Fold this protein.
Amino acid sequence: MSLERVSLNSGFLSSLGVIYDRIVGSSTVAILSCFLLGFSVRLIPELLSWPYPIGFDTIYYGARIKSGVIWYHWSEFFSRTWLLYAILIPIHNLVKGDPFILLKFTAPILYGLNACGIYYFARKGLDWGVKRSLLAVFFFVFQLASLRISWDLYRNVLGLGVLLFTLPFIKDLEDRRNFMFFMALSVLVVLGHELASVILFAVTFGVMLSGLLKGEYSRVRRIMTAALPALTLFLTSVYFRVFPIRYQIYTNIISAHDVIPARVGGIFFLVDYMRVVSSYQFYQTYVDLVLHVLSLFSLLYLLSLPLVLFGVFRNRVLDYWALLLLVGSFGALFSPFCALNWWDRWMDMLVYPFTFYAVNGIFRLFRLRCRRGLRLGSIFLTCSVLLLWSCRVSPS
């Protein structure tokens, strides 16, 4: 009787395993689950603050949507990233109502798009299994840095979401469909956000450089051809930023610019952090700058940093992606008088490559065993819970 019971139990468990693989292994169900997770997590603060908007940039988005204008001048087609407005303004014109209500649903949708993008990149770009890819999504949606980007930087979130679906195609551009998808999505990235565009081309040129060093000349030509439309559009936008066409538009939107922009040589993306004065950037000394950079990094990544370092692995796309973000985040410490602007934004975006490194670190930990047979992953999990509990109960 006991043997029959054991066989029945094992048969039942194997049946559950087959059902699990068929349901969770389905790409459609997995993508939908990722979207619902990201959407639900990001919807909570929107409901708690109802009906008031969240963040600073959200106010500008609301005013821009209510204006009903996508481009104030023909040159803005090239000089501005307008994809978000091209989506939201027609929807608002159709449904009418309060634009801030529309934005309250826009933020969770964009966050859900990024959650789907994390899953897609893990599956197609890194060739991970379903379980590891789903863990990457779960890890990502609860990160402080990813939640901060989604708070009010909607254009940035949109650009990064499209970028996550674009980069996996760079692996195999010999396939005609992959070639067309990469070409179309890369154009959308350029129209979505400036920093996402910089990441796209940094990764693209990095992969091309690796290909040249390995003698993969046909692959390099293929990548260059596929990226050419987006690159042309991007360089055109840079031209219009350096040599803008002067025009005057009267709106009720007041733009607060830096008191002292401190551009290095007049170049719009380089800044002298020792001279810049704005509503959110002002550093009295170099030590002040260092404290700002290190404190934000500690706040965002200190707890997960051991996992990130333990899980680092080589991947062409992730290598150049992480390298660019690290230069943007910490370049101000090594060259404070001439560094990439928005160091804090670059640091926020580190959450994307760090997510994949950390999840890979988790899987590595759970594969290792100590001498007494205990899994290192179990020890790390216990220590993490104790650390989080101590931070929770400790006085502020």
